[in-house]
């Protein structure tokens, strides 16, 4: 007998390679738990911040804008009735600010186009005729107290008609 016949095959004594079990997706690693917790905290915080930002920066409604304009006009009335040029300039500025808030295209209008725009908002021709011509001239030259009172009343009617 040969020596080879007496020794069993060395390779036949080896066992097969055993692979480790597949990595399970559950339970997640601690980092994923932290990320999930941060997401749960961050989502409501972002929603709250977004709502708070929009509540602070929202545009005033037309009704609130016109109510504020009416209050400002009431404050200006005493100076307007006295014929104060500064009050008349403020009235003109007030009307311009309200017009721009109502329609952005009103910002570039001057002179007759400005007065026609005001008339178009209430289907009357009071601004293009009479004492209201003083509205476009009020910041630059003094007008009579009677014209000032008439113009103030006309502006009040226009603001009330916009509501």
3D architecture notes:
62% of the residues lie in helices and 0% in strands. It has helices spanning 3-6, 30-56, 62-81, 85-102, 111-120, 134-137, 145-162. It folds into two domains: 29-58; 62-162, no CATH class. The chain is rod-shaped, with a radius of gyration of 40 Å. The protein has 163 residues and is mainly alpha-helical.
Summarize the structure.
The protein has 163 residues and is an all-alpha fold. It contains 7 helices and no strands.
The biggest sheet amounts to: none
Rg result: 40 Å
Shape: rod-shaped
Compute the separation of the termini in Å: 119 Å
Work out the strand percent. Answer: under 5%
Helicity range: 55-70%
Number of helices: 7
Q: How many individual domains? A: 2
User: What is the averaged pLDDT score?
Assistant: 85
Structural class: mainly alpha
